[in-house]
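A reminder before we start the practical. When you read a complex entry, don't treat the lines as separate problems. The point of joint prediction is that each chain is placed relative to the others, so the output describes one connected object in space. Small molecules and nucleic acid strands, if listed, are placed in the same frame. In the example below there are two entries. Take a minute to note the order of the lines before looking further.
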Amino acid sequence: MSSANQPIQPVDPKEGEVVLAPGEKFFVRRLPLARDGEVATQVELALEGFSPFPAGQLYYGFCPNSGQTQVLVYAAYRKSFSAEDTGSWLAAAAVLPDFAVWLGASGVPAAGISLRQHDGRVEAVGWDGNDELPALIVVRPAGTVSREELITEVRRKAKLTPEAPVRELTGAVHANCEKGEVLARLANSSIEARFGEGRLKQADIRDKLVLAERRLTLRRDTLLWRGFAATLAGLAACLLLEASFLGLHAWMRGQQQVIEAQKKTVEQINVAQSMAKRLEEISAQRVLPFEMLAELQEKRPKSIEYLRASTSGLWRMEIEAQTASATDLRDFETEVRRLSSIDRVEVRDPRTRDGITTFVMEVTFKPSWFKMGGVGT
Amino acid sequence: MKAYFQSRSLRERVLLFAFALIAVGWWAPVAIGRLVVLRRDMTELKLVRELQQIALSHRGEVEARAAAAGRALDPSKTLDGSQAFAELNRIATGLTAEISAQRSTRSEQFALHNVQVSIRRVDIKGLFGFYEQLNARSPYLGIEQCAISADRANPGLLNAVFRIYSIEALRGEK
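Here is the predicted structure of the whole assembly.
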């Protein structure tokens, strides 16, 4: 197979790469667009009219101008591409004719002809000075037609004057994906065309149904990859965590050693602290159970009998008692509460059985009550 | 990695994804659990360290305080465990008493010995006599805690349990 019959570049396309199909396989028309009507539908109808083949047997694409008043339609007979060629298209990001580089003019170019010779082909682009899109694109294998014949043909078909200048170029066209766009660029010149997502859907020559299917496949693959990448990131995070555990455990062991080394000293300090506190307490005050009982004795009704009395700390006494008169309990509690030496009184668990009421009275004396003039002074 | 993954067949990619998902699902909760435990341990360790630092930074102050508290005591009047035991036996002479030594707490300068005295079936006069003799030895010998109860068999008599401390000056002995 000759190089002219193969996609120009890249030869073995991978996902994200752009295939440029040889322009000589396409026939190109610029058509006016109706204002109301979908561009794709108008293009399909137009193709039915001027194409020698049914639309189903064509690879075609189109590119409307910015005002949506004109559209450049290009189509190629499917059988002019080998299965090998089209097989490689499936994974490509885009398949465009190589003359798509001329579809990116930002303004209306002056009338004239751009003539590009490269890789055994001659490409003539006719500009009529009325639209940003070329009026005509003709691509011929080199040697099948002379330069002058081609220029004459373009002048005639594009209705250009003989004075219309001819600009000659020789560079190759390169295309690639950049930031979500397809960029086609002519080497050794400033000529380039950008195709965003919407424009690319129209310009891509592949079967539109196949393209939709491919987009779904791509989306599925992207999701699968992102999911896999996320789980890999999770695994990496776990690994990092494990590594940090090792470091932290080493740090903790160091801290533990410091703690163990200081433990005995700290215990001695704590014992000295509690001992100092205890000695201060002992020097200032001692537990006075009999004085406490004597303080309460004056207020005790005769019916109340103590069963048990115990101290808890320096200032608290708990008395278990019984009485045959429940009202005496209330009076006793009231009287004890009135004592200036008492901080708090609480009667707990009162029970009456066979006319005998038992209860627990917890009495908290005020600190230093004994010095305040308690019984034992 | 992406190129390698994308070059696999769909079945291989799904399997790779599933295996990676299972690995993360198993590993992540374990790692997070360990992280929580480690964080708790670190917090505890930090707290212990801070408490130690506080104790160490107050060491001089504590020693000065203990020394000041000790200055109020006459070392010759302090009692070690055996002396306290003997003294309590003397005080409890004539009473139905059971005396048992318990634990001791020691600092560099002092020791506190605890002795439990259980007195059974004593009248109020006998118990008060014991109490007064004990108070006479204060603060070198004193009551830590006490419980007095009426004897069930004979309500006119009392049972008492005293937890008594004795102070020993360790440096004084030296």
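Discuss with your neighbour: The mean pLDDT of chain B is 89. What might explain this?
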